[in-house]
Automatic annotation (TrEMBL), chain A:
Listed GO CC annotations: cytoplasm
Top-level taxon of origin: Bacteria
Protein name listed in UniProt: Chemotaxis protein CheA
Domain Histidine kinase: 58-261
Keywords: ATP-binding, Chemotaxis, Kinase, Nucleotide-binding, Phosphoprotein, Transferase, Two-component regulatory system
Domain CheW-like: 263-401
A biological process from GO: chemotaxis
Known role: Involved in the transmission of sensory signals from the chemoreceptors to the flagellar motors. CheA is autophosphorylated; it can transfer its phosphate group to either CheB or CheY.
Any Pfam family: H-kinase_dim
Automatic annotation (TrEMBL), chain B:
Domain CheW-like, first and last residues per copy: 25-165
Recorded coiled-coil stretches: none
Organism lineage: Bacteria, Pseudomonadati, Pseudomonadota, Alphaproteobacteria, Rhodobacterales
GO biological process: chemotaxis; signal transduction
Protein name (Swiss-Prot/TrEMBL): Chemotaxis protein CheW
Underlying gene: cheW4
SMART domains: CheW (SM00260)
GO CC terms, sorted: cytosol
Amino acid sequence: MSTPSPEAGASDGGLMRVASDKISRLMDLVGELSLSVAETVHSPDLQGLELSRFDAAAHRLGMIVREVQDAATELRLVPVDEVFRRLRRMIRELERQTGKRIDLAVEGADTAIDKLVADRLYDPLLHVLRNAADHGIEPPEERRANGKSEAGTILLAAQQVGSEVRIIVADDGRGLSREKILRKAREKGLFGPTEEPEPSALWKVIFEPGFSTAETVSNLSGRGVGMDVLNATMTALRGRIAVDSNAGHGTRVSLHIPVSLAFLDCLILRLGEQLFAVPIDVVSEITRPNRGDLPTISAQGGVELLRLRGVHIPVCRLEHYYRGTAPGTNAADKQVFVVFATSQGQLAVPVDEILDRQQVVMKPLAGRLAQVRASFGCALLGTGEVALVLDCERLGAGGMV
Amino acid sequence: MAELGADMKTSHSDGISLAETDNIDDMYLTFALADEDYGVGIGGVVEIVGMQRIMPIPDMPEYVKGVINLRGKVIPLMDVRLRFGMPERAYDERTVIIVMDVEDAPIGLIVDAVREVLEIPPGQVDRPAQFSRGGARSLISGIGRIGDRVAILLDTAALVSEEDLRLPEDLAGVA
């Protein structure tokens, strides 16, 4: 203790290289540890016993496990610059290929992100970047004619907001063409012939599988495949994509990704026999409405609404959305409505009860389970039970996805 | 994970000495469904566990009963009786779950009871071609003869893939 160890004195600040599978193993064990602790503490054998000292010790144990979990999660965090650096090298290559001049601005390169996420971000980000360079940024002559600087700028930025990391790729190019995309989207039946979708809803369609073809949406050519990769990766990472575009001023694609994939802070909901988990940060409100606050619209196939302080929120009943889910066991007026904030607005989901708030261990839906819609995976609860983690974004998008 | 699987297997192999047999490909775990005997290749079997609390999962065909949490692994369960269109039967103390790894994904088969592990060399396996109905993939890889009894050997990949079911469902226009 009195003499500093040689490692601590080293110029690299005592950094240590550790094989990532060792860390993964540790994460798995920490997950199992937290499950076993919860299982022990909630053991049915303890039911009804007066255990004040045990409870105090169990509480302390729970806190320590939580801290171990956080520390283990941190082990796997790396600066997003690992990905950004590789992308920065690609810019020179893109300049050479396109004959355009591109300045890359980088912000927030020290933002921390799960190594597993970082490893998967490069390919989709490269696609976004390539598209910005290929189709967003105009050739120097065109830029000069439009009164812009000859060199286009692409901003690559990362920022942590709550438990989410936002990665932004913004160019100052010509922007997306509303007219062309809307025409194409109508052809594909994504919007009605007279429907005028909100810009944010319209831009999203470029992520639809195989949406764009070079002939019809010239400034989007090549996005077809690349955007599919992006979409698949974002689903796997429990992330979401937002696009914003301003004709003549550029396009901004932002990826919202959870900081860590290992644990998820969730609310546990029960509907009949079935347990669901929802990430806590999408829950905006929990309410038990009066009967009069649940109007239905017959013209929309009997869709239900929840009236909350004068605002009408569409209701999504899980037993209608999912095949093979029994309706709740509670009488309709005893049900609790959980209101989610999604990028398409709010969504109310009625359940029988809210059981708990827990840090859950996520398991991906593999094999047979891959066909479950609107779910990030299975959550293992402290009780040994399994809950389905809802992806409220896709739930909000309804049955079309 | 591979190590873990191997450990589990040995812990459940009471009376089955895998080391003594020459060819694991000829080893089958046999189990009962009503009064028929079925067999699956032992290579894909991870372990055999008793019936436990099943958590329902939506969006699954009727014969996928839900999932169990087996020491931190989520395993979907297929009721093989329902998969074959046989009448459902209440689970009892002999009902077991055969946990298998099929094409790198776990699956648990709910069967009436396990019988034994048998070596059935290829010479004792009949492979009638007429099992593949109208081009659909057959669930049966062969019929194993064991003395005067037979065990119907299953193609677990086909069992899980539901390729044999997809066609009629499409024709029925199921949304």
